[in-house]
Design brief:
This protein has 14 helices and 11 strands. The protein has helices at about 30-50, 100-110, 125-130, 145-150, 175-190, 190-200, 210, 215-230, 240-245, 250-260, 265-280, 285-295, 300-310, 315-320, and strands spanning about 20-25, 55-60, 65, 70-75, 75-80, 85-90, 115-120, 135-140, 155, 160-165, 170.
């Protein structure tokens, strides 16, 4: 999956500079949580053809740390020497053993070098011990939510997959970490790219990237996107997609524009062209066959739409 063109539809946002992410790991961190945090950013870089995100692995003293399943990681640096746009804290298992004064002091100092703080899984406990969540709404792995609420009365503990409260981000677990990172990609780089990242990882509910899909509007968009994904090769008319999503075409248009910043027609076309781009890069299928699999009876029509979307043609990708 190489040589993806970087030009994207005008309904995307684009962050001006790469986001620098520090990932603070502790003994017993979760491989699953780490992968679900970093891999969507890597995919966003690959799909966009740009360095939208870079990250470094950190520990308190730059010593190697080992995951809960025995994977050793040699950090790039120690926490007190690092700075960036966001610090992601990931203790996972054994988090209470890491919540002492040394960690608290290090996190409070890091808050002046990282304008945004993000706690994955049980990281919220460490932030709360350091006083960095006082007055904020936050979540944590749900197994710890009751204990968390009792231990930190100055934090508004809520049962959510992830919570964004100003410059404090908290997340409930490994699967929710993927949702949170997709959401951030959508907010800073545009929903088109977030949807493509979701499709790359074959998440059926790719609309999770826009806002978690928790609102009625989000659920409607989720249903419509699922219908679109199931009917790429033989596209359905938008009124039929709306009917299967349980709303009128007018309502679907309004909800999708509000949630994703684009009309159903634009989003549906993007899904089909994203599949075409993947098939062009990853297979030896003819352009005519790819057009059919992407819902285009006419290869020339697909090529024109492809060039408008990505700024290049299928044949140039194959050559390059």
């Amino acid at each position: 999956m190489q040589n993806y063109p970087s030009s994207m539809q005008n309904w995307e946002k684009t962050s001006a500079a790469p986001q620098h992410i520090g990932v603070l790991l502790f003994e017993g961190f979760s491989n699953h949580c780490l992968a679900n945090t970093v891999e969507p950013m890597r995919a966003a870089n690959m799909l966009s053809g740009k360095t939208l995100y870079d990250w470094s692995f950190l520990s308190l003293d730059a010593s190697a740390v080992q995951s809960s399943s025995g994977l050793p990681v040699a950090p790039h640096d120690r926490l007190d020497a690092a700075r960036g746009d966001m610090l992601v804290v990931m203790p996972s298992y054994g988090f209470r053993d890491h919540a002492g004064w040394r960690t608290q002091a290090a996190l409070r100092a890091a808050a002046s070098r990282f304008p945004t703080l993000c706690a994955m899984d049980t990281g919220s406990w460490l932030f709360a011990e350091a006083g960095l969540l006082d007055g904020h709404k936050a979540t944590i792995h749900w197994e710890e939510l009751t204990n968390f609420a009792e231990r930190f009365p100055d934090v508004e503990a809520v049962r959510e997959r992830f919570v964004i409260d100003k410059d404090r981000l908290t997340c409930s677990g490994a699967m929710a970490a993927f949702d949170l990172v997709l959401h951030l990609i959508g907010q800073t780089q545009g929903q088109a790219l977030a949807l493509e990242v979701a499709q790359l990882f074959m998440t059926r509910d790719s609309a999770r990237s826009h806002s978690g899909g928790a609102t009625p509007a989000g659920r409607i968009v989720n249903r419509a996107l699922a219908v679109m994904q199931e009917h790429v090769e033989n596209p359905l008319p938008i009124p039929e997609i709306a009917r299967r999503a349980g709303v009128t075409q007018k309502t679907l248009d309004a909800r999708m524009k509000a949630e994703l910043g684009a009309s159903p027609t634009t989003v549906y076309r993007r899904q089909r062209l994203t599949l075409a781009r993947k098939l062009i890069s990853d297979t030896d299928l003819s352009i005519a066959e790819i057009a059919l699999r992407s819902g285009y009876m006419d290869p020339a029509a697909m090529t024109r739409a492809f060039k408008t979307a990505f700024g290049t043609t299928p044949s140039r990708i194959r050559q390059g």
